[in-house]
């Protein structure tokens, strides 16, 4: 903020005098906000947000997508959206800016100021809109060299006897869950190589270091060219739906709408058609 502290202090004192309330509790060591100050700050913040929404609505009324859009998605998804979606959007709309955060942690869209999120699973925040795009399934796979040397598992329990590439955060036992119709299997796996990202697991699987449990769309190109072989083909490894999330309580600018439309067209076209919109929760 470029306004001098002395000027801000005078304005706060003047506001306190007009209201007849103390907004800040001052001491020689610290300045703390009073309850009245916190209430005023919260209400003023809402008013400023409404004003910004009104300004965006006017600018977007008949204009091309513009403004800054903050997007978050898992690193795996972000990498595959970069070229066919994100860079194309920037080339197509010169007034649009993107701030993309690739992270696998659960992000609080409202608290952290994001406009759009791509996530898997079922969101629990009822203030968000969830647009389901496609199922996210994993594939159990290995390189031809690994299968030639060690054979292929015939049933999920056979995975216990194989070297598996373990993808896990620290202190979590790796268990792979599979489905076949009404049957299900949860198999503890082990291996000499433990990694924190699917990209590292993919590299290891290509090199024949073990069996991997990877996102279907991550390995589809390797499977097509024979670099990886799907194993246990009668079993599926469901992970939930891939969804777009965005706040439902505030005005959506033309930039955010353009990003959501582009993501929907790209991701849904690689799976099934998107389901109808619903409130998260």
UniProtKB/TrEMBL annotation:
Alphabetized Pfam families for the sequence: HTH_1 (PF00126), LysR_substrate (PF03466)
GO MF annotation list: DNA-binding transcription factor activity; sequence-specific DNA binding
Keywords, ordered alphabetically: DNA-binding, Transcription, Transcription regulation
Gene3D superfamilies, per database record: 3.40.190.290, Winged helix-like DNA-binding domain superfamily/Winged helix DNA-binding domain
Keyword Transcription: yes
Family the entry assigns: Belongs to the LysR transcriptional regulatory family.
The protein's name in its UniProt record: HTH lysR-type domain-containing protein
Organism this protein belongs to: Sorangium cellulosum (Polyangium cellulosum)
């Amino acid at each position: 903020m470029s306004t001098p502290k002395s000027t801000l202090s005078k304005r706060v004192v003047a506001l306190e005098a007009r209201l007849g309330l103390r907004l800040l509790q001052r001491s020689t060591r610290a300045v703390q906000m009073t309850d009245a100050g916190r209430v005023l700050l919260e209400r003023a913040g809402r008013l400023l947000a409404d004003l910004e929404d009104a300004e965006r609505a006017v600018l977007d009324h008949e204009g091309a997508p513009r403004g800054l859009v903050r997007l978050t998605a898992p690193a795996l998804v972000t990498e595959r959206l970069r070229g066919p979606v994100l860079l194309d959007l920037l080339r197509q709309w010169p007034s649009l800016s993107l701030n993309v955060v690739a992270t696998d942690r659960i992000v609080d869209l409202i608290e952290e100021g994001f406009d759009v999120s791509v996530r898997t699973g079922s969101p629990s925040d009822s203030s968000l809109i969830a647009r389901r795009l496609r199922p996210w399934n994993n594939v159990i796979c290995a390189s031809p060299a690994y299968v030639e040397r060690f054979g292929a598992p015939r049933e999920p329990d056979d995975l216990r006897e194989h070297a598996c590439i373990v993808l896990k955060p620290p202190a979590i036992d790796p268990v792979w869950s599979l489905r076949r119709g009404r049957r299900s299997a949860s198999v503890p796996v082990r291996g000499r190589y433990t990694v924190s990202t699917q990209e590292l697991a993919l590299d290891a699987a290509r090199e024949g270091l073990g069996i991997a449990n990877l996102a279907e769309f991550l390995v589809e190109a390797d499977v097509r060219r024979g670099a990886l072989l799907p194993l246990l083909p009668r079993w599926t490894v469901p992970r939930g739906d891939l969804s777009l999330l965005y706040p439902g309580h505030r005005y959506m600018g033309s930039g955010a709408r353009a990003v959501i439309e582009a993501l929907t067209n790209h991701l849904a076209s690689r799976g099934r058609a998107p389901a109808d919109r619903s409130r998260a929760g």
